[in-house]
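FIELD: query
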Amino acid sequence: MLLSQVVDTVDAVAATRSRLAKIDALATLLGGLTPDELPIAVGLLTASPRQGRLGVGWRGFANLAVEHATGPTLTVRDVDAAFETLARTAGAGSVAARRDALEALARRATEREWDLLVRVVLGELRTGALEGVLLDAIAKASDRPAAAVRRAAMLAGDLGETARIALAEPPAALDAVGLRVGRPVLPMLASTAASAAEAVETVGEASVEYKLDGARIQVHRDGDDVRVFTRNLADITHRVPEIVETVRSLPAERLILDGETLSLDEDGGPRLFQDTMARFGSETAPQFVLRPWFFDVLHADGRDLIDEPLVDRQRVLEQVAGRWRIPGTVTADPAAADELSREALAAGHEGVVVKAIDSPYAAGRRGKSWIKVKPVLTYDLVVLAVEWGSGRRTGQLSNLHLGAYDPEGEFGPEGGFVMVGKTFKGLTDELLRWQTEYFPTIETHRSAYAVHVHPVTVVEIAIDGVQRSPRYPGGIALRFARVKAYRPDKNPTEADTIQTLRSLLR
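FIELD: result
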């Protein structure tokens, strides 16, 4: 298939707010792809190339000056081959080699095709073709039940592979997709509540567990082979040998565990989230070790547990993880839940997560079965622009323009971001230096006071609440916003929504 057909579909999807029209356009495209083209095209539609990171940022694109093709000849396979070259290019001379590969691809692409490819590589494809819409399109194109497609995607952890199975293999193949040790699944997510007592009143009898200010991990063990994945399903096994050794010591041969990791200081308290993430992303020898805490088990020695209630999963988790379990208690008493929350806070942690004891593991979903409770309201927002500082911050990028995700396009373009406030509070000197260096590399344009950037940077913001405000399109403004931490482990589409923030008005 020609890449221009993908471009046409992306434009058609972006031009309509009708979910049914989006599904129809995407289903038509998917139905015209060959089995080997399906994962490639899905990667383009979701700005997630199957090769992962390609080692190309805005600086790589900004300095290109080539003449594009006048007519479409580039196929999706051509693009995949070019992406493969970029992903494999490393070592001495890689900068020049990657530039040559980019230039070659740019010359073969028309201007419209190149615009799409740039947005795909930089994760900037805002078409409203969100995962849910694409899943429904796969169901329509394959004439399979949407529920079957969604479950397969959750368990496969790969939307492109799910599309290939649904459209190119017999119907039984989709139903056969299940847990596989070594293949990560989408993590179950939590909604929020103001207090642990309120959360228990919502779900009934619950497991109330510490909420750590760490990094989410999913660990798979098959004998001595242990693999560790991030919340985004990136394989970081080589970076965390201490976690690998811990899991090898557990009394089971085949496991899939869900948990968090962070580092403890000399007094046994949690280090700052920034320290954990710096260690988490380091390719060099660690300065301090990471400790895992496990709160769920999805598979144990041939037994799939994903559809079993949490109470049964916890019995297995106690057997296989023991002292590596996250602290918690099972209770239906709101007062007992609040007491554990206070205990977690006193130990230096974020709060608690309250989980319905009868809930299955709903991979990839954010429902009411899991509810996180933090005494300080924190939300993941996206940086839209940064203003130049004044006084002692003159010459530094300081005040952040913050946006909430708008998946339905209620207050602007579908799949875009709605500005909800600004803040310069909570920024350390180190963060100011980093911001000043980083944000110009992803800028779109400049105004008199600010550098406007591509909305790809997630930052965790603490607030005291929101207030009504006609100043911003979403009708609300943040109250006393301050920076808690940048979240390089999260994608922009994982940011909190404008609808979630507006619900605080009630």
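FIELD: remark
Residues 94-108 form the longest helix (15 residues).
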